[in-house]
Write a structure and sequence with these properties.
Elements lengths: L19 H8 L13 H4 L28 H11 L6 E5 L1 H12 L6 E4 L6 H8 L3 E4 L10 H11 L3 E7 L11 H10 L3 E5 L21 E6 L11 E5 L2 H10 L7 H12 L1 H22 L7 E2 L6 E5 L3 H10 L5 E2 L9 E5 L3 H14 L1
Parallel strand pairs: 2-3, 2-4, 4-5, 5-6
Antiparallel strand pairs: 1-7, 6-7, 8-9, 9-11, 10-11
The chain binds 4'-deoxy-4'-aminopyridoxal-5'-phosphate (PMP).
The site of 4'-deoxy-4'-aminopyridoxal-5'-phosphate has 12 residues, from helix 4.
């Protein structure tokens, strides 16, 4: 009998879509799979009691004698309302610096794995990688301080599974500019590890946030901070938005009470008064425009880079001399020359109108 037409008896097994859980389990440092996280007094009892004799605290009420909420739920509820992200997808750290370190500790195998970054960029990626004994792979920014997407992805594929984390800082510190959204998207889609989009300065930029991409991209972590636009640098409040699976793992490895009670309260207060923050941002942006225009008129400044953040980077051939002279007048700016292979660069944070006038007067005398 001639063979009949081929029939497919069984559908090929469907490949399950990578959920946040699958992805983080494939990236995790294997020894963490057997971790039993610390169970703090405040995480074991969640309700309201009349008598607290569970945490070895001092019983005399003084405002600070009780441990804070280890999961910062009120703060996360406020953040959830502002950013439209589920509470379970929000991690709060002792500054975003803590989130940077925890992400490395979570998936970076010391002595084996690598972190990719695009210099010149924020210095803590390098320091945290060194602390965690992770190799740092640099793929410098290209023209106009934009990511060289092809080079980054080529490097990542060369490194294979060792390429665990890619840091994408937009607006970038110290260059101040936003990266083009399609570049960032290509990086998120093309990189197999976690892509950390650090948006510490996004409140000063007109570019939309990346949190909207979280639901479609389980390898995305978006960092934000209350240290900049929200004026809470001293409170140390950083936020990581990520899949619920990543957030659960970050919570599992963080110190039990990583965000203090006074800091949580300060965060809540500032988030409840968004209008004040918006006004301050408006003032800072007006001052940024003025500062950029004036800096452009100085002879001793070769280039004023366009800024999408609350600072302005300038190429200043005599950066070291200018830096010292400004310090002599009680004005401290950031000398970024070492990040530009010895070519003089100064970074000016936008201050109050009065502070900026003082800076400009001092620079005029130097120029
Ligand atoms: N990311 C970038 C790009 C920064 O510039 C900074 C602070 N300078 C941070 C993160 C850390 O911020 P935090 O105060 O939240 O630790």
């Amino acid at each position: 009998m001639p063979p009949g037409p081929l029939t497919i008896l069984q559908m090929p097994e469907a490949i399950p879509a990578a959920t946040g859980e699958d992805l983080i389990l494939s990236l995790l440092r294997p020894h963490l799979l057997s971790l039993k996280p610390y169970s703090s007094a405040r995480s074991e009892f969640d309700g309201r009691a009349e008598v607290y004799l569970d945490a070895n605290e001092n019983p005399f009420e003084g405002g600070y004698n009780r441990y804070p909420d280890p999961l910062q739920r009120d703060l996360k509820t406020a953040l959830s309302g502002i950013h439209g992200v589920d509470v379970e997808s929000i991690f709060v750290g002792n500054g975003s610096d803590e989130a940077i370190d925890l992400l490395m500790r979570l998936i970076g195998r010391p002595g084996r794995d690598c972190i990719l970054q695009m210099p010149p960029t924020y210095g803590m990626y390098k320091v945290s990688a060194a602390i965690n004994n992770l190799a740092l792979v640099d793929v410098p920014l290209g023209a106009d301080f934009q990511p060289d997407v092809r080079q980054v992805l080529a490097k990542a594929s060369e490194l294979g599974e060792q390429a665990k984390l890619l840091f994408v800082c937009t607006p970038n510190n110290p260059t101040g500019n936003d990266f083009k959204r399609d570049h960032v998207l290509s990086l998120i889609e093309g990189f197999d590890g976690l892509v950390v989009v650090d948006q510490a300065y996004s409140d000063f930029s007109s570019a939309p946030s990346y949190v909207d991409l979280l639901s479609d991209h389980p390898n995305l972590v978006v960092l934000q901070t209350l240290s900049k636009a929200y004026g809470l640098a001293s409170a140390r409040l950083g936020v990581a938005f990520a899949s619920t699976a990543i957030v659960r793992w970050l919570n599992a490895i963080k110190p039990p009470y990583n965000v203090s009670g006074p800091s949580q309260a300060a965060g809540l207060e500032v988030l409840r008064d968004e209008a004040r923050t918006r006004l301050q941002i408006k003032d800072i942006l007006t001052e940024r425009t003025r500062l950029e225009a004036e800096l452009n008129s100085f002879e001793g400044i070769e280039q004023v880079y366009p800024s999408d953040s609350n600072f302005v980077l300038c190429r200043v051939p005599r950066a070291d001399t200018w830096y010292a002279a400004l310090v002599g007048q009680g004005i401290v700016v950031r000398n970024q020359t070492s990040k530009f292979e010895g070519v003089g660069h100064l970074r000016f944070t936008v201050g109050t109108a009065e502070e900026n006038v003082r800076l400009l007067e001092a620079l005029r005398a130097l120029s």
